[in-house]
Amino acid sequence: MKRRLPSMTAALVVVAAMATLPLWLANTYYINVASQILFWAIFALGLNVLVGYAGLTSLGHAALFAMSGYTAAIVVTAGGAHLLGAVAAIAMTVATAAVFAVLALRATGIGFLMITLALGQIVWGIAYRWAALTNGDNGINFKTRPQPFGIDLTSAPAFYYAVLLVFLTAVMTMAVFVRSPLGAAVRGTRDQPRRMTALGYNVWLVRFAAFLLSGFWTAVAGLLFLYYNQFISPQVAALQTSAEALLMVISGGTATILGPIAGAAIVVVMKTVVSAYVERWNMVLGIIFVLIISFMPDGLVPGISRLVRSMWPQRRSNVTGERAAKAASEARP
Amino acid sequence: MSALVVKDLTKSFGGLRVTRGVNLDVAEGERHLILGPNGAGKTTLFNLITGDFLPDSGSVMLQGRDITRAPARQRAHLGLGRTYQIITLFGRDTILRNVTLAALGLSLRRWNPFVNLDAQADLEASAMAALARVGLSHAAHRLLGETSYGERRRVEIAMALVQAPKVLLLDEPFAGLSVDERRDVQKLLMSMPRDITMVMIEHDMDVALDFADRITLLNFGEVVVQGTRAEIVADPRTREVYLGS
Amino acid sequence: MNLWLVLAINSVTLGGLLFLLSAGFSLIFGLMRIPNLMHGSFFMLGAYMGSAFLKQGLGFWPAALASAIGMAVLGGLVERLLLRRLAGQELAQVLLTLGMSFIIADACLMIWTGDPIQPATPPDLRGAVTTAGLVFPIYRIAIVGVAVAMAVALWLLIDRTRIGAMIRAGVDDAPIARVVGIKVSQLFTLVFCLGAALAAFAGVVGSPYLSIYPGLDAEMLPLALIVVILGGAGSLLGALLGSFIIGFLYNFGQALFPDLAYVILFVPMVLVLVLRPQGLFGRAAL
Fold first, then answer.
1. Spatial contact of C108 and C45, defined as CB atoms under 8 Å apart
2. C73-99 pLDDT, tens per residue?
3. Within a domain: A204
4. Has residue B4 been placed in a domain?
5. A289 pLDDT more than 80
6. Looking at chain C, which residue has its C-alpha nearest residue A102?
């Protein structure tokens, strides 16, 4: 496994750069942008489990993201402890993901997309209209960030480090998952569901598991979103949020780990930059969407990694090599 | 006890009856050939046995156990293996990974998201053993997309073998193969141990006669004749089906 | 005045509007196998364009017609220039319509600002008729009348004309339709134009009653989606029935459980998914 060395070195360099970011980027504004990139990347990684690895495109994930934030906000505002709020948020979101999965997995492809879209709208409707619970359009203010082990997360660098820790955990578990038996099974159900059934896999249950895993990381990201903004409103549950997350996944490249991270960085940076100058973020979001889908359906990371592979032909890692045999699968009779 | 018993199996799609009251009794270790022209309902019969479709009436017994209504995935766990006429493999993965995935299908470990599949030495070892049996050890690490059609056929068979099936259904294993490849696959099938019962579909009589202990001739979804190789060849109805009356 | 009657009239009115909106959505879905996520945008943009025509002094119905024609052209362009490039990749097509919906929404916000617009009810249709002590607002009745007329026209088009026969064939089985010499790709454009025009027309007709505001698109799209999941893809009868079910649920829900009215809308959809995933009238579509 000699070929592992360069990528290990590269990973170490990147992690070191991320860990020291508040030192060389001593500007609260940029540190906050970095924090946003990280928790959006967690969201995108979670969504990618379904979109990339299971081949199931969800347009309802904003609902799960918001469900987590709302649950924590409601619990804590009602006087619950932060820990209780976080546990409740994740439990509630994973349970909602299970309900979504049961309904949406009656279909695949476009049907799955339509059902998740509709289910997402239900949650949006609750957030928007059930004012007694969610404070409606005004949203909920979340007074203080939690203080895990007594550490104050009020400052931008402190919060950044907390998010970074969660992010690295997410990336590592995701990297393990992708290489794991369950990960292989999930990809198998994407490519050859009938074959997987004949081999003894319960395709429905494999997809269900993928949905729960996706829901879990979406919940974690939703929590971090709430802690960061200290505010949540129905807009978070809207279709637009689902679309943004999906754009992160497909712009970076589905079924890779780097893809959604790169996509999150691109989308967050663009949104920050665009919003600073004009109000036209929706327009820009739409245009990027149309351009990427029309001209770069593969996403950026697979495009670049293909370039890298053509320079070092012997490199063929499992994660980035997902697309290596794309031609092969197309040649399949 | 018979390895596989099919009783009065009937299936219609819309108004079309594709399988009508088919009976089949395959003994342990038997090599059974299902012959019939295209459209005779052979693949549908397989799909009914594997549970891809549920029959309208009739029953399927695997080693004395009624599996007529069992979910398809469960039948794999009960010892029913299958290869496909149209090859559906995982083109982005290596040959070894394809076979490992088959081995994993019967292991509880398939639900584990925390370990590295490549580090499951026992699964890999059994996959390698299956590949050795089909003569593909040397190609284990090649991407499936880069293999020839004949090699893919053998990967199909290796995937079935790695699950140690008691009954193996082979759907036209010679389809699309060159003469050499066909001979290799034929040799491979002949060398299989008798603890695997095999049922093979074929539409070309000449290809598979050597293989069979007993033969069932299917036409328009019905059993025309059933018997030993000699009986089938001698039977005038065989000629009728194949040459037209 | 009887509350229930008011609710019933509102329900039927909304049902009529929803039918105009979702008939096109259903035909596009039935034929092209994609949910057009721009459909709410067509409705909203159509309404805005209608209001602009009204401002120019055009009459109400000519404005509705002009808006419908304008939207047909726009829909045709999107289909020809963008969706056509992704033929056969349904998922990419859906995401493209999603991207377009954001562009249209933002363009509307840019041109018409965020302030709601409520066009005046056409003068001839103001007021109400009183029969047997019950008051019926004329405009609401007119909407229902228009919807019924459109439903009949659409039914005649689909059921009685050559084009309609081709569309039906395409909905049933596009590859076979292609084999028997039907130019399915031209049908795609045609149906897309038709759907866009109907949605825009519905937008204008509904605007005196719903008013026009940013976010109207996102509010209408899920309704069309539910109607089609309820009624089945490509089925006009299903769209009609689904529209009225949703019309009633929406209005009665608003009155009885204002907090959860929106959520209640989705209940029949969930039931249909669980009990009969192909919709009330559709073939296996999902």
1. yes
2. 999 999 999 998 888 888 889 999 999
3. yes
4. yes
5. yes
6. C274
